[in-house]
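Tokens for ClpP/crotonase. Go.
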Amino acid sequence: MAEAYKYEYFNVTFPAEYVAHVEINRPEKLNAFIEQMWLNLSAIFTRLSHDPNVRSIVITGAGDRAFTAGLDVQAASQSSLTQNAEDPARTATTLRRHILEFQNCISAIEKCEKPVIAVLHGTSYGLALDLSLACDIRLCASTTRFSIKEVDIGLAADIGTLQRLPKAVASFSWVKDVCLSARIFGAEEANQVGLVSRVYGSKAEAMQEGLKLAGTIASKSPVAVQGTKEVLNYSRDRSVEEGLRYTAVWNAAMLQTKDMKDAMLSGLQKTTPKFSKL
């Protein structure tokens, strides 16, 4: 399968049955993103979303120093988008289209039908937060250093952090604290506010546990897992009543799956169920 997933700046492997591992692979630049990387990221997750051989995904960064240091600012500063000599309205139109494209590339992770686990370590700045907040579960190593750096380079974060972070943690005061100051905070603070669900002693341990969790998720009914992710994401942005109505419509179809019968029968027989590909 890995041969079908050849994308520059990424390694895509399949370490266990139904589990995909996406590794950001530009360690010499702290895995900082250039334009081709976010286009490839979108292509990878769109493809994994529909791959019947994949039920869960882990995303990590190559090397020991960084998950990703964010956007490659030097490369971005040399882009023709920042050197446009047209009038302001036309420049704004070009920039708006570019920003929307970038947003859609990161949102491809959230829209992926399969649960995505981010395993963060080392430097995890800027785009690292945009990207990981689009994931379903975030784990990290104890050495992880986070920062929402955009105000330090003269802009408001525009790829998803300002929209997703307030819904991922309990304190809006803390959100404004870290977004307005661009201060660096560590793994324990991230864990305390709920930005990550678990902290491990090293990158290797965090990766091992991330893959273990992905394997557990992949062993469940793919119909049930896909539905759970879909309904959770839908309900997060709507009222309880809207979420309940959506769930009723969703399950009106999905309760007819053979997976339910297989799961119930295996429970009675104390066996491990095997579910068909979706």
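The chain has two domains: 2-218, 222-269.
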